[in-house]
Amino acid sequence: MPQDTIAMFDEHAATYDQTWSAMAPLRDALQLVLDSVFAPLPDDAHVLCVGAGTGAEILALAEHHPGWRFTAVEPSGPMLDVFRGKARTLGIVSRCLFHQGFLDSLAEGQAFDAATAILVSQFVTDSAQRRVFFRDIAHRLRPGGLLASADLACDMGSEAGKRLLEVWFDMMSVSAQARERAKAIYGSQVAVMPPEAMDDILQEGGFDRPVRFFQSGLIHAWFARQALDAR
Ligand SMILES: C[S@@+](CC[C@H](N)C(=O)[O-])C[C@H]1O[C@@H](n2cnc3c(N)ncnc32)[C@H](O)[C@@H]1O
To answer: What is the mean pLDDT of residues 197-224?
Structure first.
């Protein structure tokens, strides 16, 4: 994981929520379906949230499920601090464990019932490392535990992908001049890959038959069950 990615989140943590506020309707829609994906979880579920950022997914899940506990794994201290502040305001600190670092530095403990990685694995640009990213999550889940993962995905080489990308840039108000640079970033700092390639990475990462449950523009989301014992 390039440290400059984390430094970028450190630098922009204070303004992160405001910067992405225009995308809130997409996040709300993703969250709505995610709630149903996680419906089979028990009332006392323990959820691992990798790349928790400023806490968007945890705050929404915590509100709907008062018995759930959360472990937030986040390498950027400033992003985690923003989340901690919001968790205090909402009175859910006692249900959260805040871990500043990557998943490999989280102490081993009881297996989690479910995990989220929302808009995180796209920053792991090497495909082999991305498989390891998911395998590390799979190892922290109980057998059959649920993963929900979302990433920017697009087959940028296909005609349909190119057209979708233009719609995405329009929605994000990316100027015509900035689009070539944005495309270069999507091929380097952020690994935007075809959705089918993500299906394979999730399976190779230890999850059974991923289901694509959401798409809005470039944001795609999958759920899958941990299947390490089945191998
Ligand atoms: C785009 S933000 C998404 C945050 C939050 N999940 C959300 O949807 O609002 C990505 C977050 O993942 C973190 N991150 C990047 N690479 C990571 C990795 N390998 N493991 C854990 N977190 C990572 C970043 O520091 C950043 O806070």
So the answer is: 97
